Amino acid sequence: MIRALRTAASGMHAQQMNLDTISNNLANVNTTSFKKSRVEFQDLIYQTTQASGSVRRLGTVVPTELQIGHGVKPVAIEKVHVQGSPTATYNDLDMAIEGDGFFQVRKADDTIAYTRDGSFKRSPDGRIVTSEGYTVYPELILPEDAMRVSISRDGVLSVQLVGATELVDIGRLELARFTNKEGLRSIGQNMYIESEASGPPIVGQAGMEGFGEIHQGYLEASNVNVVEEMVNMITAQRAYEINSKAIKTADEMMQQANQLKR
Asked: What is the pLDDT of residues 3-31, one digit of tens each?
């Protein structure tokens, strides 16, 4: 019965982490380019009291093992990098990637982070930056007299200057992709950084060599499905409740055993 207490407690801890993850998914249902997370579980070690294949006194062979498990543990929280729906904004500096790839952003410490959030802005000195003020990499600077900005699907940035009729190319956006994008480390602010699990970034041109295309005037919505998350929440709640009842049942059995009299 002591084993039952610890086993059920591990189940409650696992479902609490599951509920925390689901809550974070729901909290970010309107976050641009947010990728939902999913908890993966793994059973713990087993205590074998009778091994299969052992020979009994009468010479018969035991066909199955007698094993008792010791609960469950969360082993990973995986980001599900399924693309969200494109949402039209008609803003010249809003961009959505259709397909694989991340925008590159230079952080304040001069390191490079990666994001799918293309809600970019124009800084006072003309640089294209994120909502937090981080510069898009490679750096692109819009001229002061730029009237209109055009971004092609392969990432070429063009502007129409005051008094001109034709567009002028001023640079190209580069995208990065990873061999294992599930291994990227989330750092908040809709950004990721590379890790040993993700591998180094592969940088290239949008629309080429497996990279997605850039769509100007659109943003990628969160890939959280509210109905699915609500169902997952109910399932986690019921699993938590069942494990708590197992603890209560084990406690009642121990109480009855303690009250036995000769």
From this structure: 889 999 999 999 999 999 999 999 999 99
Q: Who's near 186: CB < 8 A, 6+ residues apart?
A: 79, 192
Residue reference for tokens 């407690």: 9
Question: What would the DSSP string read from start to end of 49-77?
Answer: EE-TT-B-TTSPBP-S-EEEE--EEEEEE
Whole-number Å distance between alpha carbons of 218 and 88: 4
pLDDT (tens digit, 9 = 90+) per residue, 168-202?
A: 999 999 999 999 999 999 999 999 999 999 999 99
| CA 33 distance to own-chain centroid | 10
157 alpha carbon, distance to own chain's centre: 30
N- to C-terminal Cα separation, the chain: 21
What does the block give as tokens for 183? 């291994």
∠ CA 45-47-52, rounded to 5°: 115
**pTM of this structure:** 0.87
Taking only Cα atoms into account, the Rg of the chain, rounded to an integer number of angstroms, comes to: 27
CA-CA distances (angstroms) from residue 126 to 120, 152, 252? 12, 19, 70
